[in-house]
Amino acid sequence: MSKVGLIVPTLNAGELWDSWLRAFARQTVKPDYLLLIDSSSTDRTVALAQSEGFDVRVIAKSEFNHGGTRQFGVNQLADADILVFLTQDALLATPDAIEKLVDAFADPSVGAAYGRQLPHSNAGPIGAHARLFNYPPQSQLRALQDKGQFGIKTVFISNSFAAYRRSALTAVGGFPLDTIMNEDTFVVGKMLISGWKVNYRGDATVFHSHDYGFLDEFKRYFDIGVFHAHSPWLQHTFGGASGEGRRFVCSELNYLAKNAPRLLPSALMRTGLKWTGYKMGKALHARMPLSLNRTLSLHKAYWVRALQENAGDR
């Protein structure tokens, strides 16, 4: 029997944390190992997790890194064959959510799997549509040869609720240790190229959504652009993001026209901010001062580390 480990990065999980832990306690299948990697929370995140049996590793807030922190967790759970990742704001929607996700690995060709994300009950129409568009109810198995059909969406995955076969993860070098974001996409791309498959499980569900403000939309897409600039092999192999972007915009406008027409101007403005942020991040960040990149970025710690590294090189 495969051993399963659960890794959850946290920072001041707040009011949702009680509900998160209750939903986890109801799971029909519990992982063999429970690891919380906490970025020095000042609330009761750690104490509540420990009361539910989690082993906790506390790191400095400045040390958190999307890929490096998760790889730290992988290294900690050396005996786990399947590694499940959840975030503190992804609420398990059904008691069999983890069971359904782990079931994906009954297929020996599957290197990674991820579940369906449903909008939180208080999600706004724009945030809700993003989940409905990206996470349909139908499950899907994707391999490298499917890139002609799915393009860049072939490598889509989210570590808010995902799992990896350790042997596949190790074979592609693990998570990148210093990437601004999208460590999950990076790994799945490497896995697909190496012959593994990714399984989207529409029957393994969590509640997880965001209602980003205008500035945060710009900053998030700026960071996505930076990621693609540093990982050009992804688009060279699987195709660019423009086609998928157009499909999303058309879907969003149709959804809002039916459900919240008052938000159509907001959606159009957001589309412009996303496009501008992405283009600036991808094409211009290498020519801009690190301090400006930090200002334009949602993940500021990435640039703080870069500034520190530059200072150390002098």
Structural features, described:
By secondary structure, this protein is an alpha/beta fold. It is built from 14 helices and nine strands. Strands 1, 2, 3, 4, 5, 6, 7, 8 and 9 form a nine-stranded mixed β-sheet that branches. Strand 1 (4-10), helix 1 (16-25) and strand 2 (33-38) form a beta-alpha-beta unit.
List the helices and strands and how they pair.
Elements: E1 4-10, H1 16-25, E2 33-38, H2 45-51, E3 55-58, H3 66-76, E4 82-86, E5 91-92, H4 97-103, E6 110-118, H5 125-134, E7 140-142, H6 147-150, E8 161-165, H7 166-171, H8 183-193, E9 197-207, H9 214-230, H10 232-238, H11 242-259, H12 264-283, H13 290-296, H14 300-313
Parallel strand pairs: 1-2, 1-4, 2-3, 6-9
Antiparallel strand pairs: 4-8, 5-9, 6-8, 7-9
Gist of the model:
With 314 residues, the chain is α/β, with parallel strands linked by helices. Helices cover 47% and strands 17% of the residues. Strands 1, 2, 3, 4, 5, 6, 7, 8 and 9 form a nine-stranded mixed beta sheet that branches.
Distance between the termini: 52 Å
With helices defined by DSSP (H or I, 4 residues minimum), what is the helix count? Answer: 14
Proportion of strand residues? 15-25%
Order of secondary-structure elements: EHEHEHEEHEHEHEHHEHHHHHH
- Major sheet details: 9 strands, mixed
> What fraction, in percent, of the residue positions are helical?
40-55%
Q: Could you tell me the mean pLDDT?
A: 95
Shape: globular
